[in-house]
Amino acid sequence: MVIIEFMKSPVETHIKKYISVTESEINLFQSLLTELTVKAKKYLVKPGIQLKHCYFVNKGCLKAYYLDKKGNKHVIQFAIENWWVSDFEAFYHNLDIKLYIEAIEDSTLLAINQENLEILFTKAPAFERYFRILLTNAFIGQRKRVFSSLEKNTKERYLEFCASYPNIENRVQNYHIANYLGVSAESLSRIRSSLKC
Amino acid sequence: MVIIEFMKSPVETHIKKYISVTESEINLFQSLLTELTVKAKKYLVKPGIQLKHCYFVNKGCLKAYYLDKKGNKHVIQFAIENWWVSDFEAFYHNLDIKLYIEAIEDSTLLAINQENLEILFTKAPAFERYFRILLTNAFIGQRKRVFSSLEKNTKERYLEFCASYPNIENRVQNYHIANYLGVSAESLSRIRSSLKC
DNA sequence: CGCGACGTTGATTTGCCTCAACGATTGTGG
DNA sequence: CCACAATCGTTGAGGCAAATCAACGTCGCG
After folding, report:
1. Domain B2-150 indexed as CATH 3.20.20.70
2. What is the pTM of this model?
3. Tens digit of each residue's pLDDT (9 = 90 or more) over A30-76
4. Nearest to A67 by CA among A43, A84, A83
5. Of A13, A83, A85, B162, which has the highest C-beta tally within 10 A?
6. Which of A70, A136, A139 sits opposite B151 (nearest CB)?
7. In chain B, where are the structural domains located?
């Protein structure tokens, strides 16, 4: 029993936090996944390629960002262990942005494509609930980020960011975080040094 | 035939832009609505009161805003003729914000409460589609606004705002628009005067 | 070793906020 | 109908946070 607990994959543990599923449903889900690895600085997604997968991070760290018309990077989200990463909002409409998903560390991922996702939903509807909850949380997170940028100064937002991604300030380069917060790398550097005192 | 066209209510015209419905479905919908008026500067929604309705603007203009912890107003949306106004995001979760909906002009509205909305969805499922489309558009609009605030300066965002709400800069006071854009009324005033040249 | 990537620090500029004053308009009560 | 207050937009002055531009140090890697 204990051994079986240890054998659970991270994604199975994650799913069971949100929904109840039978062993056969989990097995179906596992059979629809493919595993892949991405080396640091390589891209999982680039513009022009239709995004057809959702990815679950088993190990590693990635960032999803887009380039605006002026060429500035804006990091939409980071993805570390036990995060799903995809262009969830693209489920609704494509907003004509150039989306990139780039590995920051060597990463191993699980992928499920859209057809398999449909199969999963048909045969195991509990997963509809799982993904709906994740999507809803993504929207709420986005909402919070909007409010946060309206209400708080950069230092407060940096501390909030560190709290929401545990220990990430030691895994990810400074300038990635600056892109996420929407400030220059120099400004964030000054904020960090003011916090050390 | 022409006369019947003229007799269509604004909300009926709006619905038929998005979905196909029968006359009896429209009649059911109309029977579930109640009409109300709100005088300028009066509130349709205030914190503490559970939001149980969706409102369609027949005539007039309102704004939905919240107060942050520092007491600053942030206008989420304006609602003019043919707009629905409600806390759509509250369908997902309540984010513990203090929401106000205030009439800027004397306004006449149609209201539908949650129970009637459920009845409508059960008896006329096409309306599920109608409201899903509206909700999706609201999310996309929010997304665009986030990107806009990251990419553009205040002048560009003011012009974008004027383009998205036709002629609104002549209907709504300066400081309401400033609250929407997240700048001070003085700054917006200076931007406006720079545009006149 | 030499190069590139990254973080830090300084100097300067810029956009916006805040505070303050003032004019124009509107609403209200005597 | 007038006097007064309240509301709103505009303009100026001062200050601050962050952007920009630039220089420099450090680290890791081919």
Report:
1. no
2. 0.84
3. 999 999 999 999 999 888 776 678 999 999 999 999 888 888 899 98
4. A43
5. A85
6. A70
7. 2-150, 152-197
